[in-house]
C-alpha cells in the first residue's frame, strides 16, 4: 500500500537436493515456528514493494516489537534485506513504512572506543551471521566484534551481548529525535527515559516511557544531546541519548528493557511482571511457547516444504496486528493511555491498523480463530469512539489521515453476525451511523464527501473530493453492513430501509456504456474522457478494472448490470487477458503498486494491492467455479514465496498474508458482514483448525497435487456438498470438509441457484 561458482562436478547433486527439498511432500509434523521466515517481504523500497515488511521480533499482537535497524533514524524503511550495516536494535510500533513509527528508541552495543552517532556506530553485518525468528534475534556486528541477542515479551525484551575480550565495552541508548529524555539511576543501575517521536495521531502529552535494567558493573554513563557528550546524568531535548561503559571488559552482558505509554511506574511494573528474575533462556522459552501455541492452532499437512514455510510465515504476519495498546495496572485491571484524548482510562485499546486493508480478511480470520480477542477489539473500537467522537479507520496510534472508506462498519457487523457479542454494541451502532453523516478530525475518519453521497447517491467526480468513485463504492458496501446490523439489533424499519437503499448506490457510478465503474459529475453526466486504465483520480491506488468488483454484497446485481453471467465472465477475463498497460498521469510517475502489477505477468490483475484481491473468487457467482480454483492456485504459487522478495506488494498489517492463509485453507471471505466464505482451491492435503470453543474443523483435499487445482466432488460431514461457500457456523460447530481434487474441471457441479454465494439481489443461474 501507498506509496540474490558452483564447480561442474557439484552442480548435479546440489540441484538434485534443492529440487528434492522443495518438490517432495513435506513429511512428518515440523514445529510451525521453525518454518516461519520473518525476513519474508523485507527486500523492498520506495519504488517496489515485495512486502514492505521488517523482521518483527515480538510476541503475537505485542504492544512493542523489536527489529534490527538498517535505515536512518526516522526512515520508514527501517530494515532492508539488501542493506549492509545495522545502526541499532530498535523498539518499533511501525505498521507500515508509509505510516512510519512512533515512540521508537534503540540500543546498540559498541566496542573499542566510545562512538554514538548513528552513522559512526553502524556496523557491517551478514545474513550468514544473522538468526531471525519471531521469538529470537541474533546478529554478529563485525565492526565491534559483538554478537547481540534479543528475545521479546509483550511490553519488553531481554538483550544478551557478547563483547570482545580486552576491549572497552559500551552500550548506546538512542531515544530518537522528536522529543526525548534520559536519566541514569546509579543506585538501581537503571536508565529511564521517554521517546516522543511520532508522525501524527498522538495527543500533546504522548510519551513512550522506558526502563533499562543493567545487570553488569558500570564504569560510567554519559548522556549526549544532538551528537555531543554532556556532563549531565539527566537530559531532555529534541534528540538525546546515553552511552554506558561497562566496567569489565569482554564477556556477556545482559540488559532488560520494558516500556509503557502510561508512566514510568507502569513501565517498572511491566518489567517486573514480564521479565522479573527470568534468565534470557527463560524469557525466550516463554516467547517461543506463545508462538508455538498460536501457530499450532492451524495444522497443515502435505504440500511442499516451501509451501508450508510460506503458510506459516504469512500466518506469523497475520498474528502481529492490530497491536495491543493496553496495559495491566497494579490491580491487574485492563487500562490504556488514550491516543485520542491523552487520558489513562479503563478498558481495551488496539491500534496500528488500516481497516481499508484489513476488513477484507484479517478480521474475518479473527472471527473464526480468535472470537474472544475480536470481542476485545470491538470494545476497543467503542472506547476509541467515546474518547474521540469517531471510530478509527487508520489508527497509529490515534487517527491518521490515510486511505478512504468507513470500513469499521464491516468489522463490527461481521463480528456481530458471527455471534460475537459485546456490551457496547449499541454504542458501536451509534458510531457507525454517525460515520455516515460527515468526516471527523481527518478526512479518512467518517465519510469525506458524505453530503454529496447522501443527497445524490454518489460522490461526484468534479467537486474536489479525490478518489470519489472508490468512496462511493466503499460507502455503499458499508451501508449494506449497517443495514444488516440494524436488522440484527431490531432497529426501526425506516432505519433498515434507509441503509438497504444506500447499499445500492454503487449503481450510480456504473457506466452502462463501458460496463466499468466510472467517475460521475455532479450534473449526472459521467466524467470524460474516460480511460479505465487510469490509476488514482476517481479511484484509490488502482484503476476502474480493479475497483469495479468492489460490490462485495451484491455481485449478482453487478452481473445484471453487465448484462448477465457471460458478459460478467468476459469482463473478469479481460482483466487477466489484456497486457499490463496503465495510465499513471494522475500521479505523474508509476507508483510502486503499478510496477508490481506490471511485472507480475498477470495482465491488469494487481494482487499486490487490496481492492482486487477478492476478484478471483467471483467466478463462483457466475457458474464458472473452476476458473476461481485454477486462478487462486496460480496466484498462491506465483506471487508468494517464503523469501525476502516473497510478497507481490505491500503486506499491509496482515491482509495480503490473510489472503494466502484463507486461500491455502480453501475458502475466502468475499463479503464480510455475511456468514459465508467462498470456496477456492485448497493447497494442502489436510488443514486442521483447533478452534477457541474446543472444536476442530478439518479441510481434507484428496488426490491433491500441484496440477490438481479443480474440485470434482465435496462432502461436508460425510454428506455431498454442492455449495461454493461454507457457513461460519459449520466451521465453528466442528466437522470435516472433504474435497476430491482433479486435473480436470467438473463443469456440472454446483450450478443451482442455492449453490452460489450470497448476494443481496439473489442468485442467478444462467448456465454457460
Give the helices and strands, then pairings.
Layout: H1 8-23, H2 32-35, E1 65-69, E2 85-86, E3 88-92, E4 105-111, H3 118-121, E5 123-124, E6 130-133, E7 136-141, E8 146-152, E9 156-163, E10 169-185, E11 190-195, E12 208-214, E13 218-225, E14 228-230, E15 234-246, E16 251-260, H4 264-274, H5 280-295, E17 298-301, H6 305-318, E18 323-324, E19 327-328, E20 334-337, E21 344-346, E22 350-351, E23 353-354, H7 355-358, H8 362-369, H9 371-388, E24 394-395, H10 408-417, H11 425-435, H12 450-456, H13 468-488, H14 493-502, E25 510-511, E26 516-517, H15 544-547, H16 555-562, H17 565-577, H18 592-599, H19 625-639, H20 655-665, E27 667-668, E28 676-679, E29 686-690, E30 696-702, E31 710-716, E32 719-720, E33 725-727, H21 728-732, E34 735-742
Parallel strand pairs: 30-34
Antiparallel strand pairs: 1-3, 2-5, 3-4, 4-10, 6-7, 7-8, 8-9, 9-16, 10-11, 10-15, 11-12, 12-16, 13-14, 13-15, 17-29, 18-22, 19-20, 20-21, 23-24, 25-26, 27-28, 28-33, 29-30, 31-32, 31-34
Helix pairs in contact: 6-20, 8-9, 9-10, 9-11, 10-13, 13-14, 16-17
Amino acid at each position: 500500500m501507498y506509496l540474490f561458482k558452483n564447480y561442474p562436478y557439484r552442480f548435479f547433486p546440489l540441484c538434485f537436493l534443492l529440487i528434492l527439498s522443495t518438490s517432495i511432500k513435506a513429511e512428518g509434523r515440523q514445529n510451525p515456528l521453525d518454518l516461519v521466515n520473518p525476513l519474508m517481504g523485507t527486500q523492498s523500497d520506495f519504488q517496489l514493494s515485495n512486502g514492505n515488511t521488517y523482521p518483527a521480533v515480538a510476541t503475537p499482537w505485542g504492544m512493542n516489537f523489536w527489529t534490527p535497524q538498517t535505515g536512518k533514524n526516522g526512515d520508514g524503511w527501517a530494515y532492508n534485506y539488501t542493506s549492509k550495516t545495522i545502526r541499532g536494535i530498535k523498539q518499533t510500533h511501525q505498521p507500515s513504512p508509509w505510516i512510519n513509527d512512533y515512540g521508537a528508541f534503540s540500543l546498540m552495543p559498541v566496542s573499542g572506543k566510545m562512538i554514538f552517532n548513528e552513522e559512526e556506530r553502524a556496523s557491517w553485518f551478514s545474513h550468514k551471521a544473522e538468526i531471525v525468528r519471531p521469538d529470537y534475534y541474533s546478529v554478529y556486528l563485525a565492526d565491534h566484534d559483538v554478537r547481540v541477542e534479543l528475545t521479546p515479551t509483550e511490553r519488553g525484551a531481554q538483550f544478551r551481548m557478547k563483547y570482545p575480550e580486552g576491549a572497552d565495552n559500551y552500550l548506546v541508548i538512542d531515544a530518537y529525535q522528536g522529543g526525548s529524555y534520559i536519566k541514569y539511576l546509579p543506585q538501581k543501575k537503571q536508565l529511564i527515559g521517554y521517546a516522543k517521536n511520532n508522525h501524527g495521531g498522538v495527543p500533546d502529552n504522548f510519551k513512550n516511557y522506558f526502563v533499562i535494567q543493567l545487570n553488569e558493573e558500570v564504569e560510567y554513563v554519559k548522556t549526549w544531546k544532538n551528537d555531543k557528550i554532556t556532563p549531565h546524568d539527566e537530559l531532555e531535548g529534541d534528540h538525546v541519548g546515553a552511552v554506558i561503559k561497562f566496567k569489565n571488559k569482554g564477556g556477556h552482558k545482559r540488559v532488560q528493557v520494558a516500556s509503557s505509554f502510561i508512566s514510568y511506574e507502569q513501565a517498572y511494573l511491566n518489567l517486573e511482571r514480564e521479565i522479573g528474575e527470568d534468565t534470557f533462556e527463560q524469557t525466550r522459552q516463554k516467547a517461543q511457547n506463545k508462538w508455538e501455541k498460536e501457530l499450532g492452532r492451524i495444522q497443515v499437512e502435505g504440500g511442499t516444504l516451501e509451501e508450508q514455510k510460506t503458510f506459516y510465515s504469512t500466518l506469523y504476519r497475520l498474528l502481529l496486528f492490530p497491536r495491543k495498546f493496553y496495559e495491566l495496572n497494579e490491580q491487574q485491571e485492563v487500562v490504556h493511555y488514550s491516543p485520542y484524548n491523552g487520558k489513562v482510562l479503563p478498558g481495551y485499546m488496539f491500534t496500528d491498523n488500516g481497516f481499508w486493508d484489513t476488513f477484507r480478511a484479517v478480521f474475518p480470520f479473527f472471527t473464526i480463530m480468535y472470537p474472544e480477542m475480536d470481542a476485545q477489539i470491538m470494545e476497543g473500537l467503542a472506547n476509541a469512539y467515546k474518547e474521540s467522537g469517531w471510530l478509527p479507520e487508520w489508527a497509529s496510534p490515534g487517527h491518521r489521515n490515510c486511505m478512504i472508506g468507513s470500513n469499521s462498519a464491516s468489522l463490527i457487523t461481521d463480528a456481530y453476525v458471527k455471534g460475537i457479542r459485546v456490551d457496547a454494541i449499541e454504542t458501536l451502532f451509534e458510531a457507525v451511523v454517525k460515520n455516515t453523516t460527515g468526516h471527523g478530525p481527518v478526512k479518512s475518519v467518517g465519510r469525506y464527501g458524505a453530503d454529496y453521497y447522501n443527497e445524490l447517491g454518489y460522490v461526484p467526480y468534479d467537486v474536489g473530493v479525490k478518489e470519489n468513485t472508490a468512496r462511493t463504492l466503499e460507502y455503499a458496501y458499508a451501508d449494506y453492513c449497517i443495514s444488516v446490523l440494524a436488522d440484527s439489533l431490531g432497529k426501526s424499519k425506516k432505519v433498515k430501509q434507509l441503509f438497504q437503499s444506500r447499499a445500492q448506490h454503487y449503481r450510480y457510478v456504473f457506466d452502462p456504456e463501458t460496463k466499468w465503474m466510472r467517475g460521475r459529475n455532479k450534473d449526472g453526466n459521467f466524467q470524460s474522457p474516460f480511460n479505465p486504465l487510469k490509476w488514482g483520480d476517481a479511484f484509490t491506488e488502482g484503476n476502474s478494472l480493479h475497483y469495479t468488483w468492489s460490490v462485495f454484497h451484491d455481485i449478482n446485481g453487478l452481473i445484471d448490470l453487465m448484462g448477465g453471467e457471460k458478459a460478467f465472465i468476459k469482463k473478469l477475463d479481460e482483466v487477466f487477458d489484456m497486457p499490463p498497460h496503465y495510465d499513471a498521469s494522475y500521479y505523474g510517475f508509476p507508483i510502486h503498486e503499478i510496477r508490481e502489477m506490471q511485472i507480475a505477468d498477470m495482465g491488469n490483475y494487481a494482487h499486490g494491492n487490496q481492492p482486487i484481491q477478492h476478484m478471483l473468487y467471483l467466478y463462483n457467482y457466475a457458474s464458472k467455479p473452476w476458473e476461481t480454483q485454477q486462478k487462486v492456485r496460480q496466484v498462491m504459487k506465483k506471487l508468494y514465496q517464503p523469501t525476502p522478495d516473497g510478497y507481490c506488494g505491500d503486506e499491509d498489517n496482515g491482509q495480503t498474508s490473510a489472503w494466502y492463509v484463507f486461500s491455502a485453507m480453501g475458502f475466502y471471505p468475499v463479503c464480510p458482514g455475511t456468514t459465508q466464505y467462498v470456496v477456492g482451491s485448497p493447497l494442502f492435503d489436510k488443514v486442521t483448525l483447533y478452534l477457541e470453543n474446543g472444536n476442530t474443523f478439518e479441510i481434507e483435499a484428496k488426490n491433491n497435487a500441484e496440477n490438481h487445482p479443480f474440485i470434482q466432488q465435496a462432502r461436508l460431514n460425510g454428506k455431498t456438498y454442492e455449495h461454493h461457500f461454507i457457513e461460519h457456523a459449520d466451521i465453528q460447530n466442528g466437522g470435516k470438509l472433504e474435497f476430491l481434487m482433479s486435473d480436470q474441471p467438473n463443469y456440472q457441479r454446483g450450478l443451482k441457484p442455492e449453490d452460489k454465494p450470497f448476494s443481496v439481489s439473489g442468485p442467478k443461474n444462467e448456465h454457460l
